[in-house]
Amino acid sequence: MNRTFKALLFDLDGTLTDPFEGIANSIAYALRKFGIEVEDKHSLTAFIGPPLVQSFCTFCGFTRNNALKAVEFYREYFAEKGLYENVVYDGIVPMLQMLKAHGKQLYVATSKPEVFAKRIIEHFGMAEYFVGVAGATLDSSRNEKADVIAYALKKYAVDAESALIIGDRKHDILGAKANGLHSMGVLYGYGSQQELRAAGADMLADAPLSIAEMLI
Question: Is residue 11 annotated as part of the catalytic site, yes or no?
């Protein structure tokens, strides 16, 4: 795609960091409150990406009220421990350094609550590369990816014409389309190539450094 993008909006989970341990442990903690024991944590990978309320309804058959309670329990663990049970993907920091050095404006746009996203970015030493962080609200009034992206564009006065969404799940790609933005799917996260292509990703990157190579 012969196009220059000035503003790059990165998803967090599955794109900048691998959040599996923290999310899986937090979900297992929440489900235990409902008397449900998780035997295999890897069965919880589908929770990574979509809004949590949606996932508890879809994958556990919860009513919306129970899903909201489950999210509260999830956050009890996540705010104390799960937040830091996280790993930055290899190549992410050099990629961010390259993009920033070439004048790109970098942002985080995530379905994770903004307050947690900021703490994660700061904890892992990535805050210096980002102009701003946009995330969901704790009261679930803003948790769909399309709404988070719209909020990010407005909050930071980003021109949609020169912006690109980068993420690993269909929610990132569909959220970009809903706001009239182009998108790049990353193949090292939790979404498959089939999922990202079906959602309509304009580009695909197989590794963090590939993102920089494609955009510089």
Answer: yes
